[in-house]
Amino acid sequence: MKHYDVIVVGAGPAGLGAAIEAGRQGAKVLLLDENDRPGGQLFKQIHKFFGSREHYAGTRGFAIGRQLLQEAEEAGVEIHLGRRVWGIFPDGSVTAANDTESVRYQGSYLILATGASENALAFPGCTLPGVMTAGAAQTFANVHHVLPGQNIVMVGSGNVGLIVTYQLLQAGANVKAILEAAPKLSGYAVHAGKVRRAGVPVLLSHTVTRAMGDGSLEAVEIAQVDEHFAPIPGTEQVIPCDTLCLAVGLTPRVELADVSGCDLVWSGPLGGKLPRHNRHMESSRSNILVAGDLAGIEEASTALDEGRLAGTRAAYRLGLLDVGTYEGRRAEIQGRLDRLRQGPFGEKRRRAKEEVWKA
Amino acid sequence: MHRIQQHPILSVEERPVVHITVDGTPIEAREGDTIAAALMANGIRTFRHTARYHEPRGLFCGIGQCTDCVMEVDGKPNVKTCITRVREGMTVRTQEGNGGSAS
Questions:
Q1: What does pTM read for this prediction?
Q2: CATH number, domain at B43?
Q3: Which residues does the UniProt record annotate as the domain FAD/NAD(P)-binding (chain A) (predicted)?
Q4: In this predicted complex, what is the ipTM?
Q5: pLDDT at residue B103, rounded to an integer
Q6: Within this chain, do residues A237 and A254 fall inside the same structural domain, yes or no?
Q7: Which residues contact A17 (CB under 8 A, 6 or more apart)?
Q8: Interface of chain A against chain B, CB under 8 Å?
Q9: Between A120, A146, A170, which is nearest B40 by CB?
Q10: Which domain holds residue A353?
């Protein structure tokens, strides 16, 4: 069995950030991912990120992904792809399988960066082919270069709903409407402005009530909702479309953390159940750290810096950094995270994160 | 449900054609396509039927998490088509129920 100082599960922004930092400090790092290509969801992000220069502001997601892969290589990180981690054992060993074999690895520290799943929405007809998550449509358009449909309705006006709408327009689709159950937009004004300028109507206090079609989606029925989000009878409208995209939030993928015995806590603003962790990204299991969407749904830039925190912490605990250097480095990364958690959207996440640290 | 030819940001490169069959019908895929992408590009949206009610299912999460898009590939049932790439001569079948002899 091969031994590593740090095993990182998940090669998205958080996992890459963790692997890069630990590797740079001299740790022997293995990065595992179930996909056959690294980068998590970064390579489908074709928009420019904002924030400051240190957060790659003005750089498109896929370019950030390429840069991180190069940094990981320079940091000496070993990357094994197409490996799904299915077991974490008390002795620190990890088992990962592809279609034909399972391999066991030994690690001193384990960093879980398993990301998130998109939420589904239940309504009559929601299983019809043509009803899919917004992320699926985004993956098809931006990664596979295949349009998932021609006439699309989007559910949800959060950043995912707004960004994916704009990217589907860029790919040549027609987005007929964005439905938002709340009485106001939930994403950033800058993204909302783009879709509005492109002429996509945003229907506030509206939701989908039914998906219809013979074999696959042909139309959706929508309705206005009252202040309790209940559809108001008589307000139904039918919109012909071949694709309905659901952008109704994300949930941390906690399965591995859960089976490995990490305590879970609940945080509504951070997406639901997530592993309890402290400001050093340490879970309740002494040798397991967590980072990114698994530790609370935020953004790619926060995931990356949380990963960097976790990787730096693991390096410190391996004795590769003295306490002064560690604290300096930690304060620098934490400062960047604090700046990302400003403003009306960020503030809510910052407070929720502090609640988790205290839990 | 077609291939994107032009894009304001992405460079869309022409890739070599790969031939696969879907329920016996030959279709053209492109090198590097996932099975699901090749099917969607050819207008195929139903990937399987459920065991009890024979309801159609297709792409849902697109990243290998949900298993809604599984099909029989080269005789093997329950293959996640959204993360499995095409190979020349691949045989893909709409999955009925649990697939294979178990259906």
A1: 0.94
A2: 3.10.20.440
A3: 4-307
A4: 0.95
A5: 45
A6: no
A7: A68, A291, A303, A304, A305, A306, A307, A308, A310, A311
A8: 34-36, 41, 46, 60, 117-118, 120, 127-133, 135-137, 139-142, 144-150, 170-172, 215-216, 242, 253
A9: A146
A10: 2-117+250-358
